[in-house]
Amino acid sequence: MLLIFLRHGLMGTTCQIAGCKNDSPSALAEQKLCVLHFTLSLETSCGEMRRETALGNAPPERQREIMRFITEHGERLARVATSGLHLTDDLKARILSTFLTLMNLRENLDRASMRSSFGRSGHPR
User: CA-CA distances (angstroms) from residue 10 to 29, 36, 101?
Assistant: First the structure.
């Protein structure tokens, strides 16, 4: 029994979203969210950041913050996905979709950076 605890971590807290009775896996203990609500929250945040960066007006410091967000949350999502939790096929699909959202945000940020560095005329600023 102790070996299982050490290997898979503790599912000690319930998701903080009102009405949700799912447990928060150890990889999401800091967020206090179940896998479903973590992915939903991540999708929402990525959408907001994608809109923020779409015009290419995000200052370099904000771009670095977004890059850190993508890295940290991608790593956390990978830990959840590979932790040995028994995930339903729907949750597995949602996790994969959320990885794709993170990747698309990264590409969007790269394109926005290219647009802002070259301007409309195609010449470097």
Answer: 9, 18, 28
